[in-house]
Amino acid sequence: MYNKAEEWSHVLLLYDAALKQINTKLEILNNELKLTHQYNPIEHIKSRLKTPQSIAKKLRQYNKELTVDNIIKFVNDVAGIRIICSFTSDIYRIADLISSQKDIKVLKIKDYIANPKPNGYTSYHMIVAIPVCLSNITIDTKVEIQIRTIAMDFWASLEHKIYYKFEGNAPDHIRRELRECSELVSYLDKKMLSINEDIQKYSEQQSKDFNSEGIYKSYAVESFGTIVDEEQNKEDNEDIKKDSKDKKKPGKNRMLFGFGV
Ligand code: 0O2
Fold first, then answer.
1. Which residue's CA is minimally distant from atom 2 of ligand 1?
2. What superfamily would CATH give domain 4-170?
3. Phi, psi (5° rounding) for residue 225?
4. Are 128 and 98 in contact (CB under 8 A)?
5. Less Cβ around it within 10 Å: N or C end of the chain?
6. Mean pLDDT over each residue of the chain, to the nearest integer
7. Catalytic annotation on 144?
8. Which residues sit opposite 178 in a β-bridge?
9. Residue 95: CB atoms within 10 Å
């Protein structure tokens, strides 16, 4: 039998392991996208275990007793990961990639981007469960994943400070200004996304131009090679007539090597 402190240490070990696993998955996905698309959607990742004080506060809000069972059952964000991206489209791409991982179960989604909170808060939240394999048992462990843009994160961190400063009762004009800022954040994110899409169109066009130029060049080299070949053949024929020993011409061989023949 464990005492409460030991029991809690074991629970924390699970949450910590779950955080590590999700972090590793995200790093692998980001590296894969970097390699295959020369593009990394994740700007940075923060992860944390909730403090005992915050856990106790949350259970008090839910009118639940502070027990390990209640923490596991009712507190969804003991293990929390925040993923910061550049563009709103990256948020949904990352959410899809996470959902399609075979060992991850998505338990709950809160899309505060499609449905912002009345105070203006925007972010994409997922509660997922990931199996943690211990020596004699495998336990599905909950992790809260928040995905948001740099601009959304900037807004949320200031709002968080203000919320704590005024203990949830910020003056009206501050709340109003924060709401206005959240509209600016949403405008900024849309604008940055559309600029990025334009840049991508230019890059696609450039790579098309590059490819067609590449094909043009290879045709040119091929025909140049053929001409040299023919000329070389003529020379060869003449040379054969002149001197049958002088058959090998290094120029011809070089061109053939150039074409990988
Ligand atoms: P802290 O101090 O950041 O940890 P549920 O999980 O559905 O049972 P909960 O926890 O209300 O209920 O879920 P929700 O709405 O998804 O919020 C989870 C976390 O999102 C919060 O954790 C905050 O970190 C963040 N969040 C939600 N709403 C706001 C908001 O209006 N402003 C800011 N700045 N952050 C927000 P905690 O435990 O409430 O807080």
1. 54
2. Beta Polymerase, domain 2 (3.30.460.10)
3. -60, -45
4. yes
5. N
6. 84
7. yes
8. none
9. 19
